[in-house]
Amino acid sequence: MVFFTLLSTFVLAFSLSLGLLLALMLTDAYVMFSQVALAAMFLGWLAITLALAGLCSAAWPGANGVWSDAVESSGSFPSWGAT
User: Fold this and answer.
1) Where are the domains positioned within the chain?
2) DSSP 8-state assignment for residue 80
3) What angle do CA 30, 33, 39 make, to 5 degrees?
């Protein structure tokens, strides 16, 4: 189940990023933008793509962090004496 969730999250993020890039490219084909406007659109697309990549990395099963791994270990091994 985790693989399906991770795969669907990755496909959704990739599709949104590619769709946004295509929309920006089509808009640029019909409207002449200055290089400053194109740079701003590129930076906006890059920011959204990085945010979507962060969403994918958060969905990764091992992305819980050290603290949550320690809590899980202390629950599994109570003889270790963790508080």
Assistant:
1) 2-74
2) G
3) 125
Is the distance from CB of 24 to CB of 78 less than 8 angstroms? no
DSSP the chain: -HHHHHHHHHHHHHHHHHHHHHHHHHHHHHS---HHHHHHHHHHHHHHHHHHHHHHHHHSTTTT-HHHHHHHHHHH-GGG---
CB 45 within 8 A of CB 20: yes
pLDDT by position in tens, the chain (length 83)? 455 577 788 888 899 999 999 999 999 999 999 999 999 999 999 999 998 888 777 666 665 555 666 666 666 666 665 55
